[in-house]
Amino acid sequence: VQHQSVAHLVGVGDLRVQGRPIMVREMLSGKSVAERVFHSGPLPVTTALSAAMELAEALTEAHRAGALHLVLKPSNVFLDEKNHTKLVDFGLGQRWDTNGNAIYGDPRFLAPEQLEGSLVSFRSDIYGLGALLFFMLTGRPPFQGAGPTLFQQITTQPPQPPSSLIPALEGLDQIDSLVLRAMEKLPAKRFLSVQH
């Protein structure tokens, strides 16, 4: 995927010791969203929204090319010194098996259909972007817990509106609506694309 907000792949190879392929990407400056939030707390609203817009543009380009990311999470998004984004780990998205054993991804940011082993689509990335925006705004994942409890929450319960967790977001109903619609349980209820 060729986009300014997607880390460029500079090489591929085969790691003979483990028999697995390796990918080498461009050297990135800045920190991941996970690191930024860990060290400084939630991102300012304008920074979070700007990052989400840049990611939406990158995902739109990927979807036009027929590619899905499927593992959107705070450690896969880097912010440079000017808060521009770089999305990494394209093409590593895999499903979870029926026992909930991870192959790739952080279940707290995966769409319900990914956890259920159902058909994934560009709307799975829309869910992931909504979950990532929730994290950037609140400093925490949309759902807490682990294992079956976490899976049950993700597949059956709506997330809390971000404004219910961060007083600075009170009155910003459009942000709540944006996040909650992106994270609808049924893919057909989510936005038609990451740009809408």
Keywords:
single chain; three-stranded antiparallel beta sheet; alpha+beta; about 200 residues
Structural notes for this entry:
Strand 1 and strand 2 form a beta hairpin. This protein has a three-stranded antiparallel sheet with strand order 3-4-5. The protein is built from six helices and five strands; from the N terminus they run E-E-E-H-H-E-E-H-H-H-H. With 196 residues, it is α+β, with helices and mostly antiparallel strands.
Give the fraction of residues assigned to helices: 25-40%
> Which regions have little confidence, pLDDT < 50, spanning 5+ residues?
93-103
Question: Could you spell the SSE succession in H and E letters?
Answer: EEEHHEEHHHH
Q: Give the C-alpha Rg.
A: 16 Å
Mean pLDDT across every amino acid position: 84
The portion of residues forming beta strands comes to: 5-15%
Helical stretch tally: 6
Largest sheet: 3 strands, antiparallel
What spatial order of strands do you see in the largest sheet?
A: 3-4-5
Number of strands: 5
Gross morphology: globular
Oligomer: single chain
Secondary structure class reads alpha+beta
Distance between the termini: 21 Å
